[in-house]
User: What shape does this take?
Amino acid sequence: MNIYCWEGYNQKNFLNDLPLKVNSNNFISDYIVATDIKKKVIKCDVININNAFIRDYLWKYNQIKELDYEKYSPSYSNYIKNFLYLSKWTKSHNKKKIIGVGQRFGNLNYVINSNFIEPRTAELEGYNLINNKHAKFGILLFEDFNIMQISLSCGINPFKTLDKKKLLKFKKNCQLWFDKATLISDNYFLLNKLLNKKKINFYLTGGTFTCSVARKEGYKNIISIVPKNKINNLKQGIIFTEVTSILKNKVYSNYELFLDYILSIKKSYEIAMSKYTCNPVLQMGDSKVFNLFSRNDLDIIQWNTLNNSQSFSHEYQIIPDYKKLLTVFRKILSLYPQKFI
Assistant: This one.
């Protein structure tokens, strides 16, 4: 079985009981992997990707295998009630077909060192923190999320088609982000260390997904933040939902074994508390899953502030002008080689 996935599902310890041979590949850009699947550039049997690229892209282009509705519909009763609305991403638009299973979810906005920035201040200021004259921040290169957040932070809705005026506004704000940034990296482990070493006092993009490994090591001053402010009446947060689906193949194998495996009580907990990234999972609505989490586990994934992700966030969606925005983003990024670490 060939699987493309976000970090965690590829870990040997996680896969050790699965009766299938797995070849796994990681990625950090949903857009690139989804387009490569559509173009048949990569061979993929199972895909674990952020929500919109299942329902609004791969399913749209007839790449996803429909699942047995009677078999998988009962799994929604195990969802955390406040986040049951996220189940729509695992179904066709008319909700009559199940096209994948949801599991990990959460916010991916930015991360602070609370020894230097009060969480409450960070929540209320949002991305305006970059304008503070004392701001020392890093940019984590997660392009899809970077583009969403640069847009939102200047009052542009990236989930709608943009005119020339808004594209120019994005360009100016992108320039501002990179100009003011202290450093740029694609390594969130390094950014977490630099937060603790006082080289920076926050980084964006980031969230529970990126800072949980530091919190697991006892650095509870490293905190994922969901901004609560609005700019041009737009929420500033992003909430993602990972969906795992089976790709259509000419010769179909029983890859539902993998879906059943990851949805088991034990594996739901294990993927939530993965080695390098810890995240809440939708299955925590099942008491048998929830009871596996210790108080420290819940603290690591910032369970007590999880509802902020619902109240103050846009759901991860397809960006209509992604290619245009990515071209601008990469061109400006290339002007700052001295900031790369």
In short: The CA atoms of residues 102 and 243 lie 5 Å apart. The mean pLDDT is 96. Residues 164-180 form the longest helix (17 residues). The chain has two domains: 2-105+240-303, 106-237+316-339.
